[in-house]
Design a protein that fits this description.
With 419 residues, the chain is an alpha/beta fold. 29% of the residues lie in helices and 21% in strands. The structure holds zinc ion (2 copies).
Length: 419
């Protein structure tokens, strides 16, 4: 297999990888980097390197899941690639389309690249499917346990078997089926996400219990604001809170959702995962201005308090009262107001600021577990955020564990591999 990492190899954001198996050419994911507003992966490098003459030369584009960093530049396919099959799950098609259409409304930091009609057109070309059998290759999608509809991608030819994990988790979550490894055969090459390489997280159960204890304390007298990513994290946190209320581990107070989290949650309901019900309501119009400080929970995008997003507007109010808490449940990029509030603390506020780790990515233990189970011949780590020195040390550690049985690769963006 030939591999060319267009973007998202040694960074998290804007994932897109070109692979060639025999004469067959595929793109794995077409993302956007949320930290590079208005910029999409350098697809023109595929022409420059003579890997493609047009996007129409591709045999397929496979989209692992609906997060912006994996699907955000899909409308680029309309440039000469209109007839190429786009392979993805039903849920990814439904969630991805709304996410792309609504992302510009979410925050002042978002720069629109694709027009509304381009987004609508590219999604209308998707015929969702989880298997595709062609004359000389086969593609299969399997649940990857990351968010609703997230899939790993298996491509099999006569010569090779390749597995791309996309974003994955081996933890059982409430809103996503656990990664399904039951029918997967050992691949020759594993393209593996490495978000949490070098990190081992607390047990998921302990983290959830700690979070519920904390929520109980806050809603005794105040407002709990949870800035959360619109897709995935919002729904997982809401279900966790709701379940705790149902089993009387948490005092029953109203749960409101707002921002892009609302549209995404409505789609979850349509896709058969109940988010909105008697426990969870959509916040009334202008609630961030009109609400009082009576006990309640607000789960709202953006997860990083991007400027002028709904969570940013709520935070400006919630932070003024000492009974309230702003509680983060996801990754904070260094440039965002969320990061500054959490780590720099040079603001004038009275509420408490807290953080819990609900990563929907496998930690290092899970990544090793996956390798142990799949026994691939070669592993390529992508979607990773390590310093060169950390990678060298990790490589040494991996060689110690796996000896010469498995070869490991850490390509940088723009690098090619002949595997
Ligand atoms: Zn993701
Ligand atoms: Zn990702």
């Amino acid at each position: 297999m030939y591999f060319y990492g267009i973007s998202g190899s040694n960074k998290i954001g804007g994932s897109s990888y070109f692979i060639k198996l025999g004469d067959r050419k595929f793109l794995l994911d077409m993302g956007l980097d949320p930290n590079l507003p208005g910029v999409y992966p350098k697809y023109e490098n595929l022409y420059r390197k003579k890997l493609l003459t047009t996007m129409g030369d591709l045999d397929g584009v496979i989209v692992s899941h609906a997060h912006l960093d994996h699907i955000g530049s899909l409308p680029y396919m309309l440039k000469e690639g209109g007839k190429v099959p786009i392979i993805t799950s039903e849920a990814t098609k439904v969630l991805g389309k709304t996410l792309l259409l609504s992302a510009p409304k979410e925050s002042d930091d978002y720069i629109e690249i694709f027009k509304k009609d381009e987004i609508e057109k590219v999604f209308s070309l998707i015929n969702p499917r989880e298997t595709m059998v062609a004359k000389d290759y086969e593609i299969n999608l399997y649940d990857s346990g990351h968010i609703l509809g997230s899939k790993m991608v298996e491509i099999v030819t006569q010569e090779e078997r390749v597995l791309y994990t996309g974003d994955f988790s081996l933890k059982n979550m409430i809103t996503a089926k656990k990664m399904n490894l039951s029918s997967i055969k050992s691949p020759d090459i594993l393209l593996c996400e490495g978000t949490n390489l070098n990190k081992n997280t607390n047990s998921y159960i302990n983290e959830r219990l700690g979070f519920i204890r904390h929520a109980n304390k806050v809603v005794a007298n105040g407002v709990l604001l949870i800035p959360a990513f619109a897709l995935g994290r919002t729904q997982e946190v809401v279900c966790l809170l709701k379940n705790a209320m149902k089993s009387q581990l948490l005092k029953r107070v109203p749960i409101y959702i707002d921002g892009l989290s609302v549209e995404m949650s409505e789609l979850y309901n349509e896709l058969g995962v109940d988010i909105l019900d008697d426990y969870v309501k959509i916040a009334p119009n202008r609630f961030s201005e009109t609400m009082d400080d009576s006990p309640k929970i607000i789960v709202c995008s953006s997860g990083m308090l991007l400027k002028n997003s709904k969570s940013y507007l709520y935070a400006s109010k919630v932070l003024k009262n000492e009974n309230n808490s702003v509680t983060f449940v996801g990754y904070q990029d260094k440039r965002t107001p969320g990061f500054k509030l959490l780590y720099e603390k040079n603001f004038n506020f009275k509420a408490t600021i807290n953080r819990f780790n609900f990563s929907a990515h496998g930690d290092e233990r899970e990544i090793f577990q996956l390798i142990d189970r799949l026994k691939p011949k070669k592993v390529v780590f992508l979607h990773r955020n390590l310093k060169d020195q950390e990678e060298k040390e990790l490589e040494k550690r991996l060689t110690k564990i796996y000896g010469k049985n498995i070869k490991f690769y850490f390509p940088k963006d723009g690098e090619e591999l002949n595997l």
